[in-house]
Amino acid sequence: MSRKVSIFDTTLRDGEQVPGAKLNKRQKIEIAQQLAKLGVDVIEGGFPCSSPEDLQAVKAIGEQVKGPIIAGLARAVQADIDSAWEALRGAERPRIHVFLGSSDIHLQKKLRRDRESALEMAVEAVRYAKRLCHDVEYSTEDASRTDFDYLCRVVEATVKAGATVINIPDTVGYAIPDEFGDLIRRLRERVPALDGITLSVHCHNDLGLAVANSLAAVKNGATQVECTVNGIGERAGNASLEEIVMILRTRANTFHLHTDIRTEEIYRTSRMVSRIMNIPVQPNKAIVGSNAFAHSSGIHQDGILKDRATYEIIKPEDVGIRQHKIVLTARSGRAALRHRLNALGYDLEPEKFERVYNRFLNVADRKKEIASEDLSSIVEIELTRVPETYTFHSLQIMSGNTMVPLASITLVKDREKLTDAATGNGPVDASFNCIERIVGRQGILRDYDLKAVTMGKDALGEAMVRVDIGGTVYSGIGTSPDVIEASARAYLNAFNRFFANSH
Ligand code: KIV
Ligand code: ZN
């Protein structure tokens, strides 16, 4: 019989540590609801003591998202644990996640403590958390670089103090699979107290081995994997949820392990996280990249047409990538749009549906056919809009290789139309300068990414930007068949995030 591996999703905590990916409460709830639909066992909603906003976001997730355990991170100190509990106490299934470094380098250089006093601090923190919450996870930060005997002592003592879950992180992505698998096996052998305790791993991807190390761990007795959607996270990221899940499923003959993930929700979750956090997914990313199921060589295409199994080990439908025969155009009515949205898994309230319908018409007027990918892009951008201080109205560009590009843009604020014009080094730069003139603030463009949502000359362009406004980086996303308009919408979106944050 296959054994279950629990999926602990930390997209909203470790994933949110990616620069510029900070989320507000509404965005966190939206992603958490989708994670619940995906079937994750645990959602780590955030690090409540890191800011009052994050505490409120974790609290709202705990109150509104039902099904998974909701976890909040805390350092091994009372103030952090109190904040975590304040955020989690309203949740149906709360978990306080306490962590403390255990490697000598962390103890000596970061915590300036000796092993014994750190051990006492860990035990006290777990005891304290346990008085508040029945479910307490303890993470031995930098476990893969920790002296093995000391690691065993920490694990044994924290289990005795009441931890229900022990997490062994490869914090800096230093481990290699054989070694990490061995560490888990030896730990289980040396610490009998781990029987009946959830043994978790949390691997970072600095050497590109996060998924391989997590799999080596579950093969050797780990029962929970901590991972993120699209593998996002601190530095090179965390183990990718979709890869772990699909490897265990596709190679069940080798692993004899399973998860409770509804795999047909994977693609949608990946797109949602990418859009809301404004972190593009690389095209060749396993499982969810735009090329993951694209066959370009003639020999491969011939094979696929004869039998998909020749070159595909996963059916695109299994991860929620659906092909549709009905074509949506500017003449498609509300019924056709609603039908396609339902097929894509969106069930929108009337007000949201109308917003999507209007944007759909605006795009369809300029693009012959609207593909499922276009529609998902439109829906998710519309649904995850921050409150808009300025609304995009229209744009005109004059550009050419013998003239200075000029952009004229109209935005709407409090029902008033505001129009201005600006020049720039190119049409995109001119439109960014124009937006800055209208909103009366300047930004420094840190990152700019433009991609086509589908194939073809009339493809919908999706622009993502990161803009430093007043010392904080805000991300923005915009979509349009016109790439300059998509870029301007993205730039304005970043400013709207800034204004939403400043209120
Ligand atoms: O990477 C790490 O060690 C962490 C811990 C807080 C679990 O993120
Ligand atoms: Zn981490």
Structure characterization notes:
- By secondary structure, the protein is α/β, with parallel strands linked by helices.
- It has 3 domains: 3-277, Aldolase class I (TIM Barrel), CATH 3.20.20.70; 298-383, no CATH class; 391-502, Double Stranded RNA Binding Domain, CATH 3.30.160.
- Helix content is 41%, strand content 20%.
- The protein has 17 helices and 16 strands.
- Strands 2-3-4-5-6-7-8-9 form an 8-stranded parallel beta barrel, surrounded by 7 helices. A 3-stranded antiparallel β-sheet has the order 11-12-13. The protein has a 3-stranded antiparallel β-sheet with strand order 14-15-16.
- Helix 1 (25-38) packs antiparallel against helix 11, helix 3 (78-88) runs parallel beside helix 5 and helix 16 packs parallel to helix 17.
- The longest helix has 20 residues, at 483-502.
- It is globular.
- The model has no long low-confidence stretch (mean pLDDT 93).
- The site of zinc ion has 6 residues, from loops.
- 3-methyl-2-oxobutanoic acid binds next to strand 6 and strand 7.
**Biggest sheet: strands, sense, closure?**
8 strands, parallel, barrel
Helicity, as a percent range: 40-55%
Highest CATH level, the class of the largest domain: Alpha Beta
**Separate helix tally:** 17
Shape annotation: globular
